[in-house]
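Re: that chain you flagged

S.,

Sorry for the slow reply, it's been a week of failed gels. I finally had a moment to sit down with the sequence you sent. For the record, here it is as I used it:
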Amino acid sequence: MRFLLIVIFIAALILNSCQETTVTKEEVAAKLDTLEHKFEWLDYRISQEQWDLYTRGFSDSLEFYTGLYNYTITDKELLRNLNLGKKYFNDEDNLRRYDLIYSSVLTGLIESENNISALRDSLNKFDIIYRPNYNGEKTTQSSLYDLYRSSDNRLVREQSYRAWTQIGNELADGLAQLFRLRNQQARTLGYNNYFALVFSQMEVDQPTYLKLLDRLDSLSRKPYQSILQGIRTQLRYDDVEIWDITYAYKDINRKIDSYFPVDFQLDMVKSSLEKLGYDLDQLPIYFDLEAREGKSQFAYAFPIKPPYDVRVLANLTNGLYSTRVLMHEMGHALHATQISQERAVYTNSIASAWGEGMAQLIAAQCDEKDWLQNEANVPADVADEYNKAKKEQDLVYLRTTLCRLMFEYEAYQNPNQDLNKLYWDLFEKYLFLPRHDDLKPWASLIYYITHPVYMQNYLFADIITAQSLNSIKRLYGYYSGNNLAGSFLTHNYFRFGSRYSWREMLKRGTDEDFNPDYLIEQLGI
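Prediction finished late last night. Pasting the structure tokens below so you have them in one place:
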């Protein structure tokens, strides 16, 4: 969706290259204005078709619109014309617009290549309609996820984990081919690999990113190993498995989940947002929250025509995890409805790290003791017990994230290596758990297929959230239930869209540069 700005510039600059030897700044700016409106419409239509695909399992016209996009974006003169056109933009507004378009062009030139788009889309469609088989019956990924994390029967936990990751065995070959194809295309644009291309357009450069991962690894290794030892002692297992980790927290997780029945989760979200100053009933946000055959099993926010039409897809189940996922997607949706920018590019081209950060800021309420007590009637002692356990589980999540991020980085460095061996080597390095080379969990992560080099944005989002919450609590004393905190989010973050870089907006809001120390302090490492 964010790549569609390209359509604007393609027609404009290619036409001029055929008819004129020179073009003025005013002419290029006028063409950008005209084409931006066309782009806004095309973005709207593709978003509608994607909503149909994810909610119904099929779309009438998505192939037509993406085909039109692919045809336009793959013109060989596009990137050259964009490079030549940059000299015309030196004012802040047009330069920002140009940078957003150019960034979209680079990744768009990869993803619109015929072999890549066809393979990616086929794997994605398979994932949407896939239903795993467990004990001879079709079930859902969410059911297996809950089972492998909570069943008292260790064999059941193992079997459900294996069934949960089985889709990886189906997608692995295709994903490995995507890694190779994306690298091949990136090299035609002058980059060593696709990972380097994406990071060339990010606001955290590749060396800084890798140093951050290394720092988080060093700081979290011993605390995590201590958690593992505690689990071994508690469960009396000599060898703890991946399907044992969350089970060690089953008592408190079951206890906290009992306060989040599925029928009340949307009401909790509405109440939480209202106390921040947002009336959900007055916002143009629409929901599809019940699981069914053919519908995607995951959760997404679809900005169909922000800020006027935003939709949330989820598959609610009992428990706090489901509530947090809904809160996260509501964060995306709320952000989209609060953008107040005249230019479509500033509404539709939100930096991924920033978008995820805004979603995480809303979801972060779920970890506030006051929120647990006031919205879900969780007793104070249960809230304390839960937050203590969650701090340990957050470290497990961090180590898992490091494994997944380094896997994607290494896969793009050399996609011809044995990717399954790479994954399990990293799994052992970061999680210190037994490997199972007959499984391919890495290929079950749909992000690698549909959102390549994206998962690091969740880490950046956690840093943005920790840093922002520190400022909010310093200014206003508390976060959840505080309408001043909602005003802070709207006036410092939401309303700008992508008018400024996300690092600039973070500094405006917190008076400080992007700083991982706040997340490190929050994790207690």
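What I noticed first: Residues 2-112 form one domain.

Talk soon,
D.
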